[in-house]
Amino acid sequence: MEQFVLSFRKDISLIEEPEGEQVILQSPDCKLTFKQVTSGLRTALNILVTKGATAQQLMDLVQQSDRIVGKLKWFYHLQKFSELGWLCHSVFIDDIPLAIAIPIASDNQFPARDVDIQCQYTLSRFAYCHQVEQQMVLESPLSQAKVILPNWRSAALVAKLAKPQNCHNLATEISGITEEIAQQFVALLLNTQMLSQVQQNGTLEEAENITLAQWEFHDLLFHTRSRKGRHNNPAGGTYRFLGKIETLPAVKPKMSADSIDLYKPDLETLKAVDPPFTSVLEQRTSIRNYGQTSLNAQQLGEFLYRSARVRTLIKMEPAQISSRPYPCGGAIYELEIYLVVNICEDIPSGLYHYAPEAHQLCWLSGKTDHVEELLKGASQSTGSPDPPQVLMIIASRFQRLAWKYESIAYATMLKHVGVLYQTMYLVATAMDLAPCALGYGDSDLFAKAVGTNYYAETSIGEFILGSKDPNYQES
Fold it and tell me: Are residues 62 and 100 in the same domain?
């Protein structure tokens, strides 16, 4: 059976220098120079850049022109192209592409597993289709390639493979598909880790991998797409919206004129009287029950001042940044803190936004149904029958960070939540308060309570705070 048509990725260019024997192959991040180029090699490279051909066709062409020595060199070149992630593998039907596997990582492994025409195969639970630049694309966090599906038959084949199928069934149920074409298509998807083989006992080959079994689809996809190695998407500080969309301000404008000035501690005094850092680290723990006396306004003001205030605003180009007590990528500080005050001496119960530059609480609402649900959710998260004294909800102005960073924006936000959690824990421990970070919360409910656009700003973390029982002992 003739196998896949090989070709170069579209971003690989061939430069033939005039009046010379030198040829250059260039990608966005690599360049190969060929000297004393033979006619067979030159022809094969031109074919890979244009229409493509099978590995056997290319080998025969090179051997015919350059003899056995040229054939051996060509085999080496193909291996190099594969290691660089330059080679696409395609299946054609009537000279029309049915599926094209495009490498998205260097050292793209294409193991060329054989497909048994009698065996059944089905889509991996990690495989997913989406539209990219008006094309259907099949991807998986297991794979180092993406598969373009430019033909309605290819989409139909993928749909059929949602259930176990053999090549005969695929050829029978989709017009214009022969068993040979079905076998090639299945082989392409199998070799790009989009499919899993059904074993004789009816279990999936993929399901027997106990390591993969413990990954959820969204977690593995998030991991692979926010780290280098398994994609070639732009990543890091690309500023892709510079000159297109205005960046959000470094500090969110105050959400209410009805505000409460918070207590500001004397940091020099605290430096002298605070417990030693190692003592704070060792005593840090999550506390979910409180003393009989509630948290008070001075304690809450000191806690927020030490954890999250704006120290300074810094005018920079292309966007203003700030300095705060916890670290942040690019000093962008996209996180916002909202407080649901249940019980706090000298502060009315209700929903507030913390204005970190002014060090104020801005009143948003009283205990509406949505606010009560937020408190109830926090209680359920801790397993406590009583609501927290103060629930702090950490929200993100997503576009503030995504304006600069690509591929890593959301992953970076979660890291910021983590360092803010740790800062809050250490400050609360130093102040002898009762802190506890929560594992999850309801982002839709938060957006309804505050009135934000879910896609522009909503919650990504929760932290509860209260007074510490003087008799508390860690269990």
Answer: no
pTM for this prediction: 0.91
Q: What is the pLDDT of residue 1?
A: 44
For 318-322, the CB contacts below 8 A with 24+ separation are: 318/239, 318/242, 318/247, 319/247, 319/250, 319/403, 319/404, 320/249, 320/250, 321/250, 322/250, 322/251
Examine the domain organization and report whether 313 and 441 are in the same domain: yes
Q: What is the pLDDT of residues 220-231, one digit of tens each?
A: 999 999 999 889
Helix (H, G, I), strand (E, B) or coil at 154: helix
C-alpha distances in angstroms, 119 versus 116, 183, 187, 198, 201?
Answer: 5, 10, 12, 7, 12
Between CA 383 and CA 82 the distance in angstroms is: 53
The residue segments making up the domain with residue 291 are 244-467
318 and 454 in a single domain? The answer is yes
In a domain, 405, yes or no: yes
Same domain, 359 and 443: yes
- Residue range 240-259: mean pLDDT, rounded: 96
